[in-house]
Structure formats: structure tokens, C-alpha cells
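Dissemination and training. As part of the outreach component of the grant, students in the summer workshop were shown how a complex can be specified as a set of sequence lines and then modelled as a single object. The example used during the hands-on session is reproduced here so that future cohorts can follow it. Participants entered these lines:
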Amino acid sequence: MRIYLDCIPCFLRQALEAARLATNERAVQEEAMRVVLAKLAEFPLNESSPPEVGWKVHRLVREVTGNKDPYAPLKHSFNQKALALYPRLIALIKDSNEPFETAIRLSLAGNMIDFGAQPIKDIDLEQEINIALKIHLDRENISRLKKAVEKAKKILFLGDNAGEIVFDKPLIEQIGPEKVTYVVKRKPIINDATLEDAKAVGLIDLVNVIDNGSEVPGTVLSLCSKEFLMHYNSADLIIAKGQGHYETLSEEKRPIAFLLKVKCPVIAKDIGYKIGGLVIHLSNVYNL
Amino acid sequence: MRIYLDCIPCFLRQALEAARLATNERAVQEEAMRVVLAKLAEFPLNESSPPEVGWKVHRLVREVTGNKDPYAPLKHSFNQKALALYPRLIALIKDSNEPFETAIRLSLAGNMIDFGAQPIKDIDLEQEINIALKIHLDRENISRLKKAVEKAKKILFLGDNAGEIVFDKPLIEQIGPEKVTYVVKRKPIINDATLEDAKAVGLIDLVNVIDNGSEVPGTVLSLCSKEFLMHYNSADLIIAKGQGHYETLSEEKRPIAFLLKVKCPVIAKDIGYKIGGLVIHLSNVYNL
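and obtained this result:
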């Protein structure tokens, strides 16, 4: 997906949040903002997707502030909050007449934990679960995705954020962990999950977890490792969580099921849903 | 008031809105954004108030796009919407047991029509009136302001936005138009009112209206005309509408009653109210 001009104020908002997480020194925060402003003034916007620019913005903030992982405390906190809710997720699946659909809904509930697309704020995860259990979902797409999942032998699951990865566990269990490879980022970027988070929440005890060799939000294939690309090219089905994956992969010719909560007006316009909507967007999946 | 780093993303949001109002050409909009980004990267933030930077941002957008008044249609539209509600404002004052307080509340309701502090959106003016009639106001400050108004012989009323100026008419009537001089901007800036707006809504038939010789949001004294400064320095009381006036005059040693609706987190923090709150902030008014 191309960059909209609306992304520019959003990059500055992200830069400021990251700078404030990274340091308490106002002069350093201001310097980070100036460096980002100057970079964006020159940036070839038409050649990149929003996550690629976001990556460069966050890298500049890290360089100026000297903090390699400003979001680390937030990631830890949301991993713990999500783990505390995990028994409730299990109970909801157990009590459900449609456990696959419920698992999709819970996975989508977790996608609210995204501090790139939206300002940092306290998120009421219980409320997110309640909303996700009731909100409109495209039932036909759920049914198609379920068939594709059953048919597929190798599924690549592109994870998104720390904390959110706990909400993906029920869906992996419904799919069958043995045919899933779960993907995280190699290095910290915003609050995206890394192997450290996958370990912290016990995801590595459930499923094979790899990193994509990259620290770019979403999945920019040209910046991923050979190992990841081998998985990507050989999978029968790719499940991709979050806006960043839609922004970077929506024009790819692979069978991809995008699962995301719409959090910004640019995505809302592009994908045709309202902000707050839960989306199952199937791309070339019918050709399986 | 000094600039907070939070103002930077907001300036970019304003620049984009102004550029989109000014032209439909995406390339020109992008160029305007780049010019604003480059300017902000170098800008001495500590030497200016937010409205002064906002002025420079909007001036750059006008220069790049060649549109001298991007907000003209919005201003016209809100003047007309406000005029359509004027009979209701009159009726509310007539039916009120506390007409001065009701006039203050209506004047504050109109301060929602501000497209600097907040994104451009449709504003339900009837809803704003209903909120303003019920919301908490500092009654002691209303009473003090009423006494100051009664005591003052020369009152300078610093108006804010097009449309909003209609909502100030009942307050001017309560004060007594003969002792009021009402101030607008000399040239268009964002949706601030000019003499053209004062004529369009008939304000000039009620009260003496002057311009301040400037096109900066709020009131930056060093950029105002001598005529305005004469009024400013000789007034017994100054009533200043909107966030921009608080941002530019809050540290002045004159008797100023700031009337504003809080619309941004920076002002909320600085003034100690929540977003959406209606504020009567009296500065040196007791010394009258």
C-alpha cells in the first residue's frame, strides 16, 4: 500500500512517543523530532510503504536517543496482561459452539495492542475481548478461511505485537500447531513481538517460531532473511496479523489471509471498513 | 505559552488540511508538506508561541498552493449555520434567569468552531449549545467577571473564529455594546474571523469592530497595529476568546478574561482542565 500524506503527522506522533519512551531529556526529544522532520522533508514517499518509512523514523529516534528498544517496558507489560487473560481465552474457546470463529475473534481482539497505528494508551483488554466476540465479522470469509486452513499442510503465521501474540495461541491450537510456523521480528521495532516475547509468553512451547530476519514493521520481503523467504514461498497459506502486514503485502500474489483491526483512517479508506472494524481480508486464498 | 513537542504533529495535520482545502493537486499538497517539514526542522521552537508557528505553517501552505484563503468556504458555511441558530440564542437568553451566565455559555459553545486546534469536522452546533448550557462552569469566576464587566467603561473583546462571532453577540448585548470594541484579524488565517465575516453576520451593526492589524492566530502584540495597541492598553477589561488567545496572552500583565473550550491535550495540561471543558480564566482581572 502506498503512503498517504495523512501518514506524515502520524509518523511525527510516533516519533514523539518513541522519543519520550526513550529518554526523559526534552532537548534530546526535540533533537529527535528535528532529525525526523528533516528526513521526512526529503523522503521519496512514493517508493515506500508506510511501515518502511515508520521503520526509518523509529531508527532515527533510536539513533538520536541512544535507546535501542524504547518500547521494551510496554511490551513486557502487555505480555503480562495478556498472559493473565489467557485462562479466560481458553474458557471462551471451550464454551464456544464455533471454536474456530471464536479463536479468530480473540486473535483479532489482540490486534488492538498496536502502538504504531494508534497513540500509546491504556487498553482495556477485557473490553476488547467482549467487543470482538460480538462485532460483525464476514462469516463467509471465516468459512472460506476455515476450509483453506483445513486444506493447507504448511501455514505461515505472521505475528504482530507483543501481548497480541498470546491472543493468537487459541487460533494456532484450532489450526493445529504442527502445521504452523509462527514469525516474529528479528530486532525490536515499535511494540512488535520478537523471539524474546515469544519465549516470555510460552509461544515457543506451542509452535515453531522463527524470526523474519528484519526489524521493519509488517513484512518487507526484500529485507527478510533467506530462511524466512523459503517458508514464505513454500507455505500453502499465510495468515498475516495487523495493519502493517496489509500495508506491506496487500499486493503480493500469495494466498494471504489478513486479519486486522482497523485503527487508522488511511487503512479504513483503503480496505473499505470503518475504524474499529475487524477485518478478514482474503487475498488469492481461493486459488489454493 | 511555550510550544510543546506535541504541537509538531498537530502543525503537520493542520498543514495537510490547509493544503487539501487549497488545492486538489496531490503533488502540490505533498510539496506544501515537504516545505513545512523542512521549515519545522530548523525552527527555533523556544522563541515562539504555538500560534506564531501555526501562522508560519499556514503562510507556507498558502505560498506553495497559491491559495490566499483556503478556509473561505468553511468560514462562509459556519457563518451561515450560526446565523440560522441566532433566533434560538436570543430565545435562550430571553428565557434565562441568569442571562449573563447563559450568554457566557453560548459564547463558549461557539468556540467549538475552531479548525486550528482540532481536525476539520462537521460540528453539531445545536449539540454544542445543549452541552454548554449544562456543563460545569466556575460560577465564582462568572460572578467576578460580571462585576468586572459592570465596573469597566472600556472593554476590548478579542474575537476568534468565523461562525463563533455570532455566538458572541448575546454576550455583547448583555455587556452593553456601547462600551465594547470587538477585534478581528486583518487578513485570513485558518478560520479566524475577519472584518468580512463581521459584516456577513451583522456584527458591525451591533458593536464597533476593528481589526488588530495582524494575521496571526491569537494576539501577538508585537505584530499588531498601533490602533489596536491603543485599545489594548487603554481598555479596563479584555475578554479573549479561544485557545489561541490563551497561548499568546496568558503571561501578559493586563486584566484579561480568557473564555475558551479546551480542544487539545497541550492546553488541557497547561490550564488544568480536561478536553471538552469550558474555561473562564481570569488574569489580573481582580485588580480592576
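Strands of chain A lie at 155-158, 180-184, 208-211, 237-241, 256-261, 278-283. Students were then asked to discuss how this feature might be tested experimentally.
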